[in-house]
Amino acid sequence: MFGKIFITLCVVLQGCIVIKAENPVDPKYAKTIFTKHNVTKQIQTFNHLSDSELLSKSSELLNNQGDPLIVRERLLFEISLLLRSKPENPVNQQINDQLLSYQSKAMWIQKDAGYRQPITAFPVAASARANTINWQTQSTIKELTQDLNNTTDRVIDYLMGSNSVAKQIVLDRLLNSLSYQSTLNIGQEILRIHPEIESTFLLPIARTLKSTDLYLLAVNNYSYNRTYLAKNLFELTKVNQLLPADDAQKVLLAMLSNNRLKSVAIQQMSDFIHEGTIISKTLFELLADPGAGGDAAMALSKSNDLTILQTLESNLYSRNPVVVKRSILALELNANFNAKQILSQFIKTTQDKQLKQEVARWLDAS
Amino acid sequence: MARRFLISLFHTITCITLPLQAVVWTYTNTEEGINLKPLGYQVPIPINSLVPVDGFRSYESLHARHQDLMLLSDNITGQIIGSTQNGRSIWAYQLSDPDTLIDEGFLTEGATLQNGGIHAREWSTPEVTTAIIERFASNEADNWVYQYLLQNMNMIIIPVLNVDGYLQTQRYPDQTLKTTYSDDPSDWPRDGRMRRKNMRNVDEELSTANDALWGIDLNRNHDPYWNSSNRSSPNGNSLVYHGSGSGSESETQALYAAAALGPANQLRFFVDSHSFSQLWYIGNTGISRSNSIASSVAQRMKAATNHSYTLVADSPGVGIGTTSEHFADTYKIPSYILETEPGGNGSVQYGGYGVSHSGFILPNSEIDRVRYELTNASVIAWYMQSVPPVVKAVEIRRVSDDTIVFSGQWQATSASNRDWVESINLGLSANEEFSIWVAYNKPMRWMDDNNNIMAFPNTSYSINPQFSIEGINVNNQGFVREFVGASSDWLTQPGGAGVGYLQYKTDAFQLTFNLNQGIDPANATLLALAFHNNDFAGINNDANPATMTDYYQYWVNFESSTGESSDSGGIDRTIRIINDGSPDYTDPNVVVIVDPPVVEPPQRESRGGSPTVGFLLILFMLCLNQVRRFRQ
Fold this sequence. Notes:
Mean pLDDT of chain A: 88
Oligomer: heterodimer
Shape of chain A: flat
Strand content of chain A: under 5%
Distance between the termini of chain B: 71 Å
Shape of chain B: elongated
């Protein structure tokens, strides 16, 4: 009897596992399914297959409805990853084309995001797209550098051509592979003949060469381009680290004239706050700016220079309420002993009840 | 106590004895290689900037931004509501004018609470909560919906609850650990950029792999369903470890402290912001009317996101220990878990390569739009939960000589009542041109940046103003004449009855009308104005302005056309130019003379009222007393 119960239990459990192999799958049970179908071993064999054998395998997986969906898609996904390191040739392209047009259906319940929401387990087509971009990038770079005598002209013509997201990727990889001299030639040619080139392409070259002139040109040419702008902005957050102090300050001051670059410029100015310099004067003037003043306060808060703190203290009694409040902000963000002393004195002398309350509350909490 | 000790012991033992192999993964744009995870787009790195950028700001910048806005604005106050495991302050900000009453006085403002950054790796949520504060700060004197909300609501925002965890993700913005934990699939990342939980017993070094799995899931730490399902875990290594007890974490206590700023009994709305999956989970309050309201609000929030988010209602009586379950159950208010985009395809939605968990890494290029849409979602939700629309004032002028022929307004006299104060009533006449100015208690229409009236994005509620003149003539025949204007008849310039808005842009409209086609006020025994306008969330006006509307689990004193308690309003027929003394809510299309209903209409001194049942009882007792005395 117990034997019958045991067998029944096994059948039921196996049924549960079969049921769990349906869509969507609990990731915990997916592990069991993968083990049952020797997925790890199969993946290891892929590495030893020739390109045409891999094509056969891929076709077999696409046509085979026998194995569970999640197993097939896992294997197809692994094939797409394997193609990353393979050269572009007709057979590999054929495999990739198969995967590009495949629509993933296997879902699993990801417990840690939208906790009852199924998500795509293996995005095969998206992964294949990465291969396409890789191969295109490689062939573009090969084309641009095949004749070292006219690399400069070819690169500049390429950059002046129509826009695409892939261009940024090509340029980044190209700069990693070119010699310093080749990159310098491109930079000099741009400055000499093609100063109209987009910021997007100027900035990586400027970064590689640590060229102040190219940075200044990039800032001058900076315009809103949604596809590229996030990367552009990030490139301009490193000016203070890459350029000598005087040059960095020049570039940062130039960035102030563009509203989209103002805040990131101001934050980097904190590295150059010295009493009497243009930078600190600029930051104090910016405190009154409705938009940029908060950034100026944060930049000034990074300084423990006594003269900076004293200037902030005198600002607390300014007639401009915005300057008063931004100076309070700078002192609160600084929060060192001297700053707290200044604020403690302020709440004894100020007539502004609301400010007194807010600063007192901050002092208590700090 | 013993139970908690045993749980902690179990936690400690499992954490020490589980073998741990950790590999550092690095997210890249497109670079391939061992342990490199190409996303297919620029890896977001925190940027130092107080103002919004096309990217994600550092925590230091976000905090400075909140403090800056708080200092600059009289309508933003901030306080420390608690501290994290590592002793960092957790701030909440209240968006509200300095007083605690609505515009009309007497009634306390309703409150809302929105939480961000509870799960560390969900970077879009601190940006969304910050964007909300920024939107209100830059529009606080707009004489429109933002000023209205600041003056009539107390909106509480916690931009980042799990500060320790968020800083950990920003400390390692492109790195995470792939750990081996028996309950996780083989490619689940933990710690670094992918930290989810708080930092209890976790150091800030990514290289310390042993503590990578530790911490408490702050969205499993709540009653009433703490530790009641298999979607939270008693195992300290689990991604959904629920902690040693409900509310055990200091961050959880900070959230509850923020609720008390409402104060708690004034809360009408709660959202806990997360990513990803692109949906709203709607908490179950256990009360049918409350759940309907929650669903209705969710529909409008969904419209703000171009209907791209799914709505999922929680099942009654079960849960997994989340914040929204706690708030729905405790306060019986619309409570949600917001899961921002992307949807189930993760970053593939944006052309990414679909690397595991890349759904948590929203591309820099998308965050500006997400901020904008989800701020709109909160705005319309808070607008709905403020007060329903109610007619406040009416003035009618004869066009030929600009004489005011009718004028009156509703004035609040207590927290529950308004009185109709009529200053002029010269009546109307047939075949003459009149203009009517009607003012409401709130802005009634959405506008674009150029003050052009439009429907709220992706909604189709009527935007044209309308009113009717209804009545009964001497032959006991009812009549109705409707007048509908154009959307541009809503007023966007100041001026009051002299033709502008009363207090907020689009809180009033003006139409011209002519009573012809057989309607002669001289032959009317009843002549009433009827208003049936919805606000921009599609909520109809209160049918009875005599009662002040409040909220407790659902709307109180918000009446339908027949005078019944409702959550959707109706036709306001309370303003009468010729009053036949009939009860309110008379539908002139049904000309039936009925006895006064058992439920007495509210007393209004200007019209006199029927004696209440209580008054009759007192009279009876007095008479009885007199009879007894007489007999004695």
